[in-house]
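Page 37, top half.
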Amino acid sequence: MALAIESLIPHRAPMRWIDALTGCTDTTATATVQYDPGHFAVSGGVVLETSLIECVAQTAAAALGQRSRTTGKTESAQHGVLAAVNRFCIQSRPPLGKTLTIEIRELRRFGPMLLIVGTVACEGQLIASGELSLYA
């Protein structure tokens, strides 16, 4: 189910930090990204760890865009804001040239506020995990 990400989120290069939405249910989503040396999130040949937080947030945005499409709306998610980062732990530096898998799960929704938990893994190894609060 790899969907064209630019049809689901408003982010464009150089600020689009996920490549494809590969799974989406009512409360979960999975996306992928592969960093190359020219990516905006790469500095001095090294992927910036903070980019992982944005990958999780953009996966949530892509899921909201896909859910909107399934209800008959054709526009991407347009008005989301990352409001808070909580207990986000980075285990290791993201590798260049390898596919990262981002998984999110909704924990709670309070009106426009959404609390999610997300993980980032590479080849089955956990790289990062934590919670984000989004206004969406």
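Page 37, bottom half:
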Amino acid sequence: MTQAIAQDVLRTGFLTVISVAGPILAVAMIVGLLISVLQATTQVQEQTLTFVPKMIAVLLSLVLFGNYMLSTLMDFVSSLFNVIVNL
């Protein structure tokens, strides 16, 4: 395995991780920000109030983006197997 192949596999792996985790993290961040703004305007400082809506939003986004995430991971793994075969 040359250094160029290893760097290409690592770069592709990092981009895959970012593209798979990105939508879920973005949804969690947006929901957390909206709940924080709501808490700041109403002055309700309950810590458990942020957890439940964020958990529901992440579960819904997993349902929505699950097919994309699985296909992206399967494409990466199959390309990784092709690299291993060509060694």
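Margin note: The chain is about 90% helix and 0% strand.
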